[in-house]
Amino acid sequence: MIRFEHVGLRYGVGPEVLSDIDFTLEPGSFHFLTGPSGAGKTSLMRLMYLGRKPTRGLITMFGKSINQMEREQLASIRQRIGVVFQEFRLLPHLSAFDNVALPLRIIGRPEKEVQNNVDELLEWVGLGDYKRALPPTLSGGQQQRVAIARAVIARPKLLLADEPTGNLDDEIGVRLMNLFDQLNRMGTTIVVATHSQHIMDQFGHPRLALSEGGLKVEEKKHWIQKKIEGVF
Amino acid sequence: MLGLFKKKDRRLGSSSKRQYDIPLNKNDGADFLVLLIALMTFLAVLAMSGSFALSSMTKRWSSGLENKLTIEIPAEKSDGSLRSSEQIKGFTDKVLKSLEGNPGIKSAVMLEKDDIQELISPWLGDDMVLDDIPLPGLVSVELHVSTPEVLTGLAKDMALINDNIRIDTHETWLLSLLRVTGALQYSASFITLIIALTTIIAVAGGVRARMAIHREDVELLHLMGASDGYITKQFQRHALILAIKGALAGTIAGIIILLIINGVSGDAEGGMLPDMNLNAVHIVALIALPGFACLIAALASRFTVLRVLSAMP
After folding, report:
1. Within an 8 Å CB–CB cutoff, is residue B67 touching chain A?
2. pLDDT 10s digits, B91-132
3. How many domains does one find in chain B?
4. d(CA A156, CA A107)
5. The complex's ipTM?
6. Are residue B73 and residue B155 in the same domain, yes or no?
7. CA–CA dist B272, B57 (Å, integer)
8. Record: contact B19-A77, CB cut-off 8 A
9. Of A23, A160, A153, A149, the residue nearest A81 (C-alpha)
10. Is B223 on the interface with A (CB under 8 A)?
11. What is the span of the domain harbouring residue B204?
């Protein structure tokens, strides 16, 4: 699904924020991306959703090297990725409905299908009564749910979520993680960047741990052992 | 009509009942772009119709004088003394007789006093008594074909009658006038080109400004997998709608001014002023002008957006 080989990233002429990142995510896997603030979680997410090109190294997505892809091919890859941004990035002039509908419209789905799917998903995330509401009139938690609905509406092959439970109460947070689990069981590969030890412990998926620009993949057994040893 | 455009502008497409993904129709700068395109189209209408009028006038002059010349028996002799009207009449008859036997001549007509009076009346007035003025003898000649051989032969024949007789092929003053009108025509075309370039620069600048304002929205659509075409279409459609508004307003204003100019110049006498009686091709070109302005705006916005998008990963 995703393979990073010796990937490095720097902004401008500054130091590398990510160095020699090597990992592979198998199709249908579920990983938490964790690490202290400033470790490069958002930069790594950005590389994964093709928001930036690496300054070095090779990235392979869906079996194709992105380094050699044409622009149109990159657009097609992006359509298979759902992203929940940390700061939501909703379009403020569009209603909750139209924000969620965007990915389906971009890939050219018929309007009737758009209506049905968006209505259903907004009901599911508890925003059935806020379809016509503009994002600025919604609370932080509601905006986040719209952002999540937008990320999953087109049934992406890969779902990337940057601190998706940050503005949600525990109940909604757990419900959201259950939705991610459900999507994962349906074959979606999921990467969730989070600080929440509670969420990581509860769902127990392997972790991509970033520190000082490098990355370690910690399988479930590994971090359970660390937990037992009192590292966390 | 503008209301209709405003309503349409709120939507992405005629078949779609949703808004633009990017709020392009919510910027005050749009009115400025409409005004600018209106002014540019207005100036282009004036420049183009000016060029067309000059072209018509040039053709009229050229075709009116083609294969024609005037033979003049001057009222003044080489030594400065004046010829009597009888002497002039005598030379004129000799000239006419000589021309009758020339196979290159299609027709030759002596200009009578009345004809000369008609020619000079715009400058000297209708009440002028020509008997008081020493007038030359004038013979209007039409050739079958105006070739250097025919003209040389004619000059020799006239020299045999009197070496003071002049042949005026109208070439000297016509060439000067044609040079002036040609320069004016080129200037008008150049001005039209400048107007087109200014429109392109203005539209491109406007689109760039909008892309800068909505950079985050554009980037988001890009990250969600929107193709360059999907994003470009929205800017292009918006620019097109603004251009339609501006170009129609500018063209209508330009045509009104042309009608006023035509009304004013129609009253003027002399026939030297270019008239605004445009032919069918010119009218079609003027009608096509707003379409051309819209095409320029749409293409300028398209290439600007594509250029900005190409900088995104």
Report:
1. no
2. 888 888 888 878 888 888 888 877 777 777 777 776 666 666
3. 2
4. 12
5. 0.87
6. yes
7. 9
8. no
9. A160
10. yes
11. 2-63+174-310
